[in-house]
Amino acid sequence: MTELIKQISGREVVATDLTHRHLLVVGQTGSGKTTTTLALLSQLQRANQTAIIFDPTGEYAKLPNATTYRLGGNAYLDAGSLSADQLLMVLGLAGDGWLKEKVSTAITALRIQQNVLASTGVYQKRDRQTREFESQVAKLDDWTSGYDITCLADQLVEETVRPYTDERANYRMLGQVYDRSVINSHWDQLVTLRERLNNKGMRQLFGTVKTPGVVKTELNFVLKMFLAQPSNHKTLVLDLSALKSFGAGQQMVISVLLRRLLEDRLAKPGHFPVSIVIDEAHRYLPSKDEDLAANGIFQILREGRKVNLAMVLTTQSPLDLPAKLRSQFAGALIHRLTTPEEWAALGLTPLDVQLDTGQVLVIQDGQEVTSGRVNLPDWWEGGQL
């Protein structure tokens, strides 16, 4: 194994020394972060250590020895992996109380339609017996989470059914007529929901765009299969560049994927080590500290080491990250920082000499270990190590 850094001082540093605990790679654009990340990935490949990179721009998609899944291409996200709250956040419609309530019940109905009745289209609630519906709900389980999201707007109309208001009323049914006053008063929300679901980016995200000849795989399944056994000098790249226009929605997608990954590992302890690389991590983090605890990145930082998950985050400035999150890193590779506040955010004093492009300062447990220049990647080519 070659060293990661051409040293100026200190001991030899290799990728596996740095990535067995959480690692922060930080520095301004053009300071060498990408080269450092590539060098880390290269050494992890050569050491046959599993690595997964969440790539927001698509620039890692052509890495040597990479297995690449591109959102909107050969990969999609199952809408059933999102709660009603999470889905509305991804759609940019969070905060509407009526919509939140009705989307939740509509998802349950569509799950019954697809998984219990094995049928397509909406789940008809008008003139359906309440006892029949309750029996079908009882049959739902974790494996029945999938549903046809293209029917969601139409299903919301079904959620407005009610009994007749006269002697014809049958209270043993879910409803007998549509409440047209409710539909009309919420028509704008229904139209907006339909428009958002028909947006090209959303159709790519949820895999509802038909692409003949392309086999699409669900992202949670990709992660689960990649973590089933150690990789053979491979890196998994998730190209998430299709999320760039989603704003806060991309935070939710990444968070859901990471939380599911952590849940799967916690359910099956005793795993081989995996490095999770989150490039430009500030894109995926909430702006409010109170929202941090539910974020998948933060949850892996807190609990991942129990199941051999270590995270490598890259960002331009440590000030882009909440203080609670910065405290989770045992090590840091520091490129160019420009203000005393940035150094102080890492618990350090500024260097007397500015680091040039490609130069890096290695910090472990709050102490400087060495400094130098990152070696260029030396990719695994199937030979002897």
Report the structural category: alpha/beta
Number of strands: 14
- Number of distinct helices: 14
Q: Which whole number gives the mean pLDDT?
A: 88
The radius of gyration computed from the alpha-carbon positions, rounded to a whole number of angstroms, is 25 Å
Helix content: 25-40%
How much of the sequence lies in strands comes to 15-25%
Overall morphology = elongated
Cα distance, first to last residue?
7 Å
Q: Strand order within the widest sheet?
A: 1-14-13-12-2-11-10-3-9-4
Uncertain runs: none
For the sheet with most strands, the description reads: 10 strands, mixed
Order of helices and strands: EHEHEEEHHHHEEHHHEHEHEHEHEHEE
What is the compact description of this entry?
The protein has 385 residues and is an alpha/beta fold. The chain has 14 helices and 14 strands.
Could you describe the 3D structure shown?
The chain is α/β, with parallel strands linked by helices and 385 residues long. The protein is 34% helix and 16% strand. The chain has 14 helices and 14 strands. The chain has helices spanning 15-19, 33-46, 84-90, 97-116, 130-138, 152-158, 180-185, 187-198, 200-205, 219-226, 248-267, 296-303, 323-326, 340-345; strands at residues 5-9, 23-26, 50-55, 66-70, 75-76, 161-162, 177-178, 217-218, 235-239, 274-278, 309-315, 331-334, 359-364, 367-374. A ten-stranded mixed beta sheet has the order 1-14-13-12-2-11-10-3-9-4, with helices on both faces. The chain has a two-stranded parallel sheet with strand order 5-8. The protein has a two-stranded antiparallel sheet with strand order 6-7. A hairpin with a 2-residue loop joins strand 13 and strand 14. The longest helix has 20 residues, at 97-116. The chain is elongated, with a radius of gyration of 25 Å. The N and C termini lie close together (7 Å).
